[in-house]
Amino acid sequence: MTSPWLAQPEAALKTPRPLVRASWKRAFDNHLDPDLPLASLEVAEDELGDYRLAHPLASVLPVIRRLLVRDADDDSGLLVAVGDAMGRLLWVDGDRALRRRAEGMLFVEGAGWAESRVGTSAPGTALELDHAVQISGGEHFNRLAHAWSCTAVPVHDPETRRILGMIDITGGTQAVDPHTLPLMEATAAAVESELMVQRLRALRDRPAPRRPTRRTVTVARPVLRVLGRDTGELSSGTTRVELSARHTELLTLLAWHRQGLSANRLAELVYTEGESAVTLRAEMVRLRKALAGSLDGLGLESRPYRLTQPLELDAQHVVGLLDRGAHRVALATAVGAVLPGSTAPGIEQIREEIRARIRESVLSDASVDVLLQFAQTPDAANDTEVWSAILRLLPRRSPKRAGIVAHLEVISG
After folding, report:
1. Separation between Cα atoms, residue 331 and residue 325, nearest integer Å
2. Helix (H) or strand (E) segment spanning residue 313
3. Does the global pTM surpass 0.85?
4. Cα 214 to Cα 212: distance, rounded to the nearest angstrom
């Protein structure tokens, strides 16, 4: 692949800005090719509407449109785009003729414009650096974008300062006019202020508690119960939702793999007959709708598939108890295997991992009483190592020794 510095004929006439030079280097390190097509669609058309509706910036779109979009009409030569924290464009508005031109480089809703995917551009580089960025013409890494200029700014959660997404203006040279950068920064500040106002208003409008409460408020995470059940129960506060077997498997896998799973990998973990990712995507659309209609706040993101907020599994609670040495409570909590009727490969892996964690933890440092409790479970009934450990730990004069020895003789054959 050509070096990124040699691939930029317009910018090669002068020394690139340090910001641009560093971005080109990152693109080169990511093995991007400046002559290949730019973006790719990362949010499917049938998923885009639901995903946008659930995104935190959806509620502040009127602010963005009032400050930016109304000036980007059909004669402006400008586009206004709003994207998520991973660089995926969720809304693109502005000059209609320019929008048609921008389709040539896939600057469209649902496309991914992260710097790691397309190289240097204002949307992706602003997210990468976490501050406002202007990129002009040949400063873009990819040649297809050399006719365009853009200014973008990240938007943060007003409380946590976590990046929620970005706002971008794209067009000709007017997109990087000196006044554009402060305008974009002011828009981001207005959006963050509006988000805080909305939260404060929601708190104000919330019914007052009947009794005084502590100042510290604990927000309960939704919980999915899968131990000893063939279908899961999803709960949050007083809300209880019974899930189908397939939806339970999907949510269990996403809760276990919190970093997210690609469509192909998730399909491998769910299906035993080798169904394709297409089949999985259709099921994920149904799951997203089921969640939207039953439990507020818990949603799905795509590419990779992952949950929009943490979901606690009762199986993970068992692991946490084991890690804290609360073996007796862990065994009492483990009322059964994870989805015992499921044959999904990923569920079988989780089931085996939980079983192995319990066995290893109990054998390594549990008391003899806890070992006796564990020995009564189906997993340990014929486990000679467990029963032998009990025999070693029991006092010599314990009346239980005779029964343990007899059981060992039976299971040892």
Report:
1. 11
2. strand 312-313
3. no
4. 7
